[in-house]
UniProtKB/TrEMBL annotation:
Pfam families: CsbD (PF05532). The lineage of its organism: Bacteria, Bacillati, Bacillota, Bacilli, Lactobacillales. InterPro entries: CsbD (IPR008462), YjbJ_sf (IPR036629). This is UPF0337 protein. It comes from the Bacteria.
Amino acid sequence: MSVEEKLNQAKGSIKEGVGKAIGDEKVEKEGTTEKVVSKVKEVAEDAKDAVEGAIEGVKNMLHKEEK
């Protein structure tokens, strides 16, 4: 989990809320977009970490079998 992406999601949420509050659809949509893009990046980062962990697990298992 990336702290940077969590902060970007929070900034996007704030921007989205401000846009709603002042009736500015452009600002609201920009905030929504920032929030969604940051969440996608976070999920992709988590998936990458999970795959790397699985690969390491398989490597470790194979090394144990070789001995």
